[in-house]
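Per reviewer request, we include the raw input and output of the structure prediction for the construct analysed in the revised manuscript.
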Amino acid sequence: MFCFEIRIFAIKIKPELYKMKTAITHEELKLLIYLRLNSREKLTKLSRITQIPVSTIHEKLRQFSEGIIRKHTIILNSEVLGYPIKTHSVIKADSSSKQSLGEFLKKHDSVNNLYKVNNGFDYVFDAYFKGLNDAEGFFDILEEKHKVKKIETHYILDELKREGFLNREEVI
């Protein structure tokens, strides 16, 4: 296990975490962890924390944008925006309507994340709604127009963790 003292805490990284098929170096992994913690950090401060030269960080960011970093984005507070109802659903459609269901979910404004899955279901998705009536109306449309065989919906009561992958000061 590697241990690097960085200011008031240490980062411990198991070697197998950075010997993945992406073949990133330990230095790159360390930089990615700090970017996940605060992607708006100034390069000079990142350089001090990671002990990587600013010019190297700048070059690594350019390289990451070509593959490892898929999207620069923000995480919205849906409740403050007026969308307090959050759902997580798994859905199975008739084989004749599977593709149209996928297209509908991709285009619908309430759907935040959409995944194609296996093991008895076709899609998993998260959606946000202004109220229960909006949510129920959305699910009624799904069942009526897309020949849904089975759907399981869970209303999210509290978000316990979000965007936690490679987002800790200490990776075990």
